[in-house]
Amino acid sequence: MGIQKQPDGTFQVESSKKGKFYTVDLSKGSCTCPFFRFSLQRVHGECKHILAVKDMAQGRDQKSYEGIISFVKKHQPVESISLIKEFGEDAVDDLLSRGELIEKDGMIKILE
Ligand SMILES: [Zn+2]
């Protein structure tokens, strides 16, 4: 199943009919496929398109978070700028806000 992230933060998910795409918006928990609109929406259910996007997002986050932590462990302290360049601002920000990484004077370390 092809999934493409759009600049506005939604995802285009290819339906099982090739060439047809539905739009999944995770912030609203919605999908534009008929099954979601006519049935699941009322009961706050999740169609396979929403589930596929969630799987992909979680899988990638998990992987990049582990990557960041082990990278920082090996090289700490690491410059924030280079860590963000390597792994992306969202993931680094998230780890900082969770307290798994700490930033001081532009350098990032692991709290121990
Ligand atoms: Zn759907």
Blueprint of the fold:
Elements: E1 3-5, E2 11-14, E3 21-25, E4 30-31, H1 34-40, H2 48-75, E5 78-79, H3 80-87, H4 89-98, E6 101-104, E7 107-110
Antiparallel strand pairs: 1-2, 2-3, 3-4, 5-7, 6-7
Helix pairs in contact: 3-4
The structure holds zinc ion (ZN).
Residues 22, 31, 33, 36, 47, 49 line the site of zinc ion.
Give a structural overview.
The relative contact order is 0.11. A hairpin with a 2-residue loop joins strand 6 and strand 7. Strands 1-2-3-4 form a four-stranded antiparallel sheet, with helices on one face. The protein has a three-stranded antiparallel sheet with strand order 5-7-6. The chain has a single domain (3-110), classed as Arc Repressor Mutant, subunit A, CATH 1.10.10. The protein is built from four helices and seven strands, in the order ββββααβααββ. The N and C termini lie far apart (41 Å). Helix 3 (80-87) packs across helix 4. Helices cover 47% and strands 21% of the residues. By secondary structure, it is α+β, with helices and mostly antiparallel strands. The protein binds zinc ion. Zinc ion binds at residues 22, 31, 33, 36, 47, 49. Zinc ion binds next to loops.
At a glance:
With 112 residues, the chain is an alpha+beta fold. 47% of the residues lie in helices and 21% in strands.
Class in CATH? Mainly Alpha
Model regions low in confidence, pLDDT < 50 over at least 5 residues: none
Which compounds are bound in this model? zinc ion
What class do helices, strands and sheet pairing give? alpha+beta
For the biggest sheet, the summary is: 4 strands, antiparallel
Averaged pLDDT: 90
Count of alpha/pi helices: 4
